[in-house]
Amino acid sequence: MASNPMYQFNVYRIGPEIKLGSVDISFTNASLFMVISSLAILIIFNLGAKKKTLIPDKLQLLSELSYSFVAKMISDTAGSKAKPYFSFIFSLFMFVLFCNMFGMIPYAFTVTSHIIVTFVLAAFIFIGVTVIGFMKHGLGYLKLFVPSGVPMVLLPLIVVIEIISYLSRPISLSVRLFANMMAGHTMMKVFGGFVISLGIVGGWLPLSFSVALTGLEILVAFLQAYVFAILTCIYLNDALNLHH
Amino acid sequence: MLKKIIILLFVTCFACFNVVFAAESGGMPQLNPEFWISQIFWLIITFGILFIVLTKVILPKISDNLETRKSQILENIEMADKQKEDSQKKIDEYEKIILDSKLKAKNHFNEAREKILDNINKKRAALEKDLDQEIDVVEKELSDLRNKSGDKINKIAAETSAELIKELIGEEVNSSSIAAIVDDQSKINKERKDV
Q1: Nearest-CA distance from B46 to chain A in Å?
Q2: What is the ipTM of this complex?
Q3: pLDDT tens digit sequence for B75-113
Q4: Are A180 and A224 in contact (CB under 8 A)?
Q5: What integer pLDDT is reported at residue B17 of this predicted model?
Q6: What's residue B2's pLDDT?
Q7: Torsion over CA: B104, B105, B107, B112 (sign)
Q8: Which residues, other chains included, contact B187 with Cβ-Cβ below 8 Å and sequence gap of 6+?
Q9: Taking the mean position of all CA atoms in its chain, how far away is CA A232?
């Protein structure tokens, strides 16, 4: 069963079965890696924020660079109005990034390779952005679906398309991350399996592929976290600065 | 025949679907809803804690750090500018002082030179005066001596000639006439010398 490339995505219970009423909320390997990622973020950034030296040490530099990186990303895409949402986008980016990166460790579990996790995050963002949009602009937020400068004849069609594209945002956001992570890990597993089955004679080619894929996957892990965060910023920009 | 084929096709399709579904249920653990609620629950808890701690504790510290650094750097730049200005001022002052002291030194030198020259001139004048005086005295003495010596020579000459004449001719010649002759002779000599 271990040779099945999908086996790595199995979720299994760690410890006793916990039931809240009739629903099962047991601690699983997915939960374990969520906790590990969160703890790693908290420890690294807490250590980085602890010392207040004028010339930062490595951890401080890391945390400060991440801070200014996310701050710049937000101010570039969503403007200064998005400042109150900085900490949410920072947490989101770091959570996705660390989950992706921990998934790159052999035998580790990739939290973000599960559609339910990414979908909950994306749905939360979608609902939050929609609520913010309606709170800022009232019913005027519906103007988002009516782009200016479109001929009257095309307007009904365009509005329908806009509404569909708006409603598909959480799906595209979650499926993009989930599919990328799953596909990458599956591919690495498949190539790893080829190394074993081709043995010492022919196994070198898939092994080199595997090495190259590891590098690529680390890049993808960062890139997908970045894309996730920057798309959140763009959606937030739509809600905060309503001009299409 | 046709009926048979259709049934066969149907059965094959069914078998294929069965296999695919079996693979699917075993193949995509993501679509198995058994632990969905658990994952959502733990995601909310971990992400919630992460978000709260980052927002309340860590991010303010980092932003504080960045702000302090920014202000510190600005302050330092300001201070550096101020110190630069100060040092420029000091350099100007220093150059002025050097220029002044150079001028002063020149003045001092000139003064000292003039003083020394004055002193030398004065001393030389005094010395020359002294010398002149001495020369005068000596000249006077000399001329006195010369004048006196002329008379004396005449006298001696007259006496010697009187003696000689006495020795030669054994007669006392009038000394006054001899003196007159000697005088004449010496006058002639003097005239010759003068000429």
Answers
A1: 6
A2: 0.90
A3: 999 999 999 999 999 999 999 999 999 999 999 999 999
A4: yes
A5: 45
A6: 57
A7: positive
A8: none
A9: 10
How far from each other are the two terminal CA atoms of chain B, in whole angstroms? 188
> What residues of chain B lie within 8 A of the CB of A10, using their CB?
29
SS3 assignment, position A26: coil
Residues with Cβ within 8 Å of A148's Cβ and at least 6 positions away in sequence, in order, are A244
Listed by start position, the domains of chain A span 7-240
Residues of A in contact with B41 (CB under 8 A): 20, 25
d(CA A220, CA A215): 9
Single-letter code of the amino acid located at B134: E
Please tell me which of the candidates A28, A46, A52 has its beta carbon nearest to residue B38: A28
Could you tell me where the DSSP H helices lie in B54-174?
Answer: 59-169
- Provide the pLDDT for residue A24: 84
Are residues A38 and B49, on separate chains, in Cβ contact within 8 Å? yes
Q: Which helix (H) or strand (E) holds A58?
A: helix A58-78
Separation between Cα atoms, residue A157 and residue A151, nearest integer Å: 11
Assess contact for A211 and A106: CB atoms under 8 A.
Answer: no
Residue found by looking up tokens 């074993």 in the block: A196
